[in-house]
Design a protein that fits this description.
Length: 133
């Protein structure tokens, strides 16, 4: 899976094939995440994650919601990550979280080992990531 789909801005995901509609990690018992580096410092926005879904060729949609993850930021590449949101037992298809007012240039969403969907806990499967004002 390519990371392109998570930031492509396409809202109608249903018309895309699985490889164009989402990013998936390896299915291993380890932490997984996506890191974003911004071209200029950000502050005070909202970070939104929409989890991936799968229809398996039928009309039943299964959302692959990660249950346990954190959102972290840092100002410089050499800085330590600072956790700004910690999510446990998530059940939401879309998560929207405030980001700090202090400037940051790096952001990551980080799923703890085994923190994926209950049916596939070692997989992180993301449909789209967005920054919103």
């Amino acid at each position: 899976y390519s990371l392109g789909p998570v930031v492509d801005g396409i809202r109608k995901r249903q018309e895309l094939g699985p490889m164009e509609a989402a990013w998936a990690s390896e299915e291993t018992e380890s932490p997984h995440g996506i890191e974003i580096q911004f071209s200029k410092p950000q502050h005070g926005a909202r970070f939104q994650v929409t989890w991936a879904y799968d229809t398996n060729g039928d009309s039943n949609v299964r959302w692959w919601i990660s249950r346990d993850y954190v959102i972290q930021v840092k100002a410089n590449a050499s800085d330590d990550w600072k956790t700004v949101v910690e999510v446990k037992n998530n059940q939401s298809v879309v998560g929207s979280y405030p980001l700090p007012e202090t400037p940051f240039s790096f952001l990551r969403i980080y799923q703890v080992a085994g923190g994926g969907h209950a049916a596939r806990p070692n997989l992180m499967w993301v449909g789209q990531l967005e920054l919103a004002d």
